[in-house]
Amino acid sequence: MGAGFDPEWWCLLSCLYDESALKNAIFAALIDCHAFMHLYQNRYQIQGIDVLDIAEEFGLPLYVYDADKIIEKIGSLRAAFPGVRLKIKYAAKALTNLSILKLMRSQGVELDVVSVNEARMGLLAGYEPGQIMFTPSVNANEEIAEAIAMGLQVNVDSLPLLEWVGHTYGSTVSVCIRINPHIAEGGNVKIQTGHADSKFGISIEQRDAVKAVVDQYQIPVIGLHVHTGSEFKNANAFLRGAEVLFELASDYLDLRFMDFGSGFKVAYQEGDPVTDVEELGQKVSVAFQSFCQQYGRELELWFEPGKYLVSESGLLLVNVNVVKENPTRTFVGVDSGLNHLIRPMMYDAYHEIVNISNPAGDQHTYTVVGYICETDTLGWDRPLNEVRPGDILALKNAGAYGMSMSSNYNARLRPAEVLVYEGKPYLIRHRETFDDLVRNQVLIDFEEEVLIKK
Fold first, then answer.
1. CATH 2.40.37.10 intervals, the chain
2. Which of 140, 169, 182, 238 could pair with 196 in a Cys bridge, judged by C-beta atoms 3.0 to 4.6 Å apart?
3. Residue 395 forms beta bridges with which residues?
4. According to the CATH classification, is domain 45-63+311-438 in 3.40.50.970?
5. Please, what is the angle between helix 159-169 and helix 141-150, to 10°?
6. pLDDT score for 449
7. For the chain, what is the mean pLDDT?
8. 175-180 and 132-134: which strand pairing?
9. What tens digit of pLDDT does each residue of 23-75 get?
């Protein structure tokens, strides 16, 4: 109810004042109550918890993730692929926090990793080695050997690596082969991985050379993989990549799965086009079922979503240090920057920003910038409810490639991370301290060295 409104008190007053006056007072109180509730309903919440309360409890800057949103995205992806043996492999590089990996495992989602250390994190989260696909990109052979010794499924990315695996292990290690289909699709050119000039995968034009190495060493090929990039708006790119693998499959008669990577587009602002996962699932499922009939047996269909599963779950909460009026624009300076969220500067990525401290204020146009000694603009010319020093802003869609690409540039500390699970916020990473910054450095005593030389 509104401030100062007590029903018993008003009932007592009805004995002292006339009915019309009482009615007017109650009406005014109800209006006050409605205004209060309207303001409350506009407060930013995760699973019924006020985000401002989370910020107060854990401090700023802060990454906050909504477990319900992650579980919802897993469910929507599963439901989109009827009639096929679907296996979801979470691309751990998007967000490698151990609790997030454990949440994925609890939902029956397996892992795709790009380094042995990501695999080690998966093992700590409870995964079995056989549930982890290792997809290297020009990694050292020593790391490949370590992955094989760990029991990971290796996804071979180059002809030299395929040759090395065959020469070293012969027919004792099964592999998946990553093909570059020469398909240029997706969003920013930096996240297009399937075009002819990309470093990723073995060119489809080297098909005969791949087969020759496989035959020479009798390498068991149990999977084929294609990933053409990120942020596809429709099923066409996946279908074109699938056709490449379907044609290539005739070279390998013992396949167990096909892996179509990922690249599902999510909305970063209202009106953004997104991948219609339901349409994609129906079209790809039909094509895959038809292929399996021709191939002679049913294979597993794998996808490796990262951003799709975690992006929308995440907020980066930051504090406003200063509102800086310039002749050309008004800057909002916050206690974060490209050291915590590099995507706006690296990919020109858009992240919606909201002022959760002033949900009902008048809107003005601001440019939100970070505290790094670089141009680290987080949002140009954004309409925000009036921003004041000390307000808390939330950058949305920050669950993917935010914390995992963060750094200590300018000797800044990385933020804490919180996961909201079943209506309760849990700290899943402590905020860094100065001791963390210098922990592995070695300080030379130069004065002593000079004395020794003398």
1. 45-63+311-438
2. 182
3. 316, 353
4. no
5. 50
6. 64
7. 87
8. unpaired
9. 444 444 443 433 333 344 568 999 999 999 999 999 999 999 999 999 999 99
CATH 3.20.20.10 in the chain, residue ranges = 96-305
3-state secondary structure of 334: strand
pLDDT of residue 69: 98
- The H or E element that residue 345 is part of is helix 343-347
Is there a contact between 429 and 402 (Cβ–Cβ < 8 Å)? no
Q: Is 15 helix (H, G, I), strand (E, B) or coil?
A: coil
* CATH code of the region 96-305: 3.20.20.10
Q: Please report, as a single letter, which amino acid is at residue 196.
A: A
Beta strands in 150-290 (DSSP E): 153-156, 175-180, 202-203, 221-225, 257-259
Task: Specify the DSSP class assigned to residue 432.
Answer: P
Q: Which amino acid, 444?
A: I
pLDDT at 13: 40
Q: Is 373 a catalytic residue?
A: yes
Distances (CA, A) of 327 to 181, 330, 369, 373, 376: 51, 8, 16, 21, 20
* Global confidence as pTM: 0.86
**Please, are residues 96 and 121 in contact by the beta-carbon 8 Å criterion?**
yes
- The whole-angstrom separation of Cα 332 and Cα 352 is 15
Q: Which residues of the chain have pLDDT under 70?
A: 1-42, 182, 184-198, 229-235, 449-454
- Selected catalytic residue, list 15, 33, 176, 373: 373
- Ordered DSSP codes for 242-263: HHHHHHHGGG-TT--EEE----
